[in-house]
């Protein structure tokens, strides 16, 4: 018995070592295939939540002006984006990159969002913060509250611009910045602005037309759709970018990366090599729904086409939502329910379940039955 127990323990130990070795090998596989200079990096499929590459993705690091992704998102969610106002004189007097604001300038929040996302204006971030929240500190409070709501557990903001010379409490991670970027790119105004290489605006005192140029050089490459550059002496070069190929958009984040332009293109090439277009299907493709008079109607449940990893596709699941019954008449193509496709509890998408045939109105005798049935439901609450 003792020898059997020893053999079991030894076998379990070997199995555990093999498991650890396998997991570490899987984790190192991507990193060994893509050599990058970044201290931290990630490639993220925002549609599915899948991580295709990561390196120190949960290490807290300063993120410089990629901070302005959050600032611009909050600004572009405000009303009256094109209403002109005079900038706060104290807000525009700041160091670093600028959109060229001066005391007394008339601008709009949309102008300031462009000033943040293209030339990375610190003056634009501060001016927008004061306009939206009344003060820079109050706006930073909004940023941190939004980070909590997004589940960015390793992110904390101190400034709306990303300037971090006087603080060590302004930080994020590659993973959190990827999640933030994916959410921000759902805002159509932000997506449109950060994808511009240049933009002509009219602002100033008095307003006059001028051009702003985007610091994101990756936009010259085919498929690049956004999103933001960053640099401080403490954070070094930081970059968050997005790329669309064959309908799939990936997010790439590098923090403290001296060769970020090259690294992002290499990471995108690797990331897209790991995904493919797949069809997600319901577990039970043939489903019927009960009509109130006892008849059945056949239902059509659609598949979902999405770009993801094979492993993710194999782990996906579906949930069908149908009422207990419906009333006739029913026409072929009528919506009768929904199917939701998920990966690890995250919704990938939902599709309408429709009737696959026509069901005529009930006959008179059946109609009496339905009236009685409805009265019973009203009385019992069923």
Automatic annotation (TrEMBL):
Decide whether keyword Cytoplasm is in the record: no
Q: Which UniProt keywords apply?
A: Carboxypeptidase, Cell shape, Cell wall biogenesis/degradation, Hydrolase, Peptidoglycan synthesis, Protease, Signal
Task: Give the catalysed reaction(s), semicolon-separated.
Answer: Preferential cleavage: (Ac)2-L-Lys-D-Ala-|-D-Ala. Also transpeptidation of peptidyl-alanyl moieties that are N-acyl substituents of D-alanine
Residues bound to substrate: 228
- A single GO BP: proteolysis
Give the InterPro entries listed for this entry: Beta-lactam/transpept-like, Peniciliin-bd_prot_C_sf, Peptidase_S11, Peptidase_S11_C, Peptidase_S11_C_sf, Peptidase_S11_N
What superkingdom heads the lineage? Bacteria
The record places the active site at 65 (acyl-ester intermediate), 68 (proton acceptor), 120
Tell me one Pfam family matched here. PBP5_C
Per UniProt, residues of the Peptidase S11 D-Ala-D-Ala carboxypeptidase A C-terminal domain are 294-359
Q: Which residues belong to any copy of the Peptidase S11 D-alanyl-D-alanine carboxypeptidase A N-terminal domain?
A: 29-258
EC?
Answer: 3.4.16.4
Q: In which pathway does it act?
A: Cell wall biogenesis; peptidoglycan biosynthesis
MF terms from GO for this chain are: serine-type D-Ala-D-Ala carboxypeptidase activity
Physiological role: Removes C-terminal D-alanyl residues from sugar-peptide cell wall precursors.
Q: Which family does it belong to?
A: Belongs to the peptidase S11 family.
State the protein's name: serine-type D-Ala-D-Ala carboxypeptidase
Q: Per the UniProt entry, what species is this protein from, by scientific name? A: Ruminococcus albus SY3
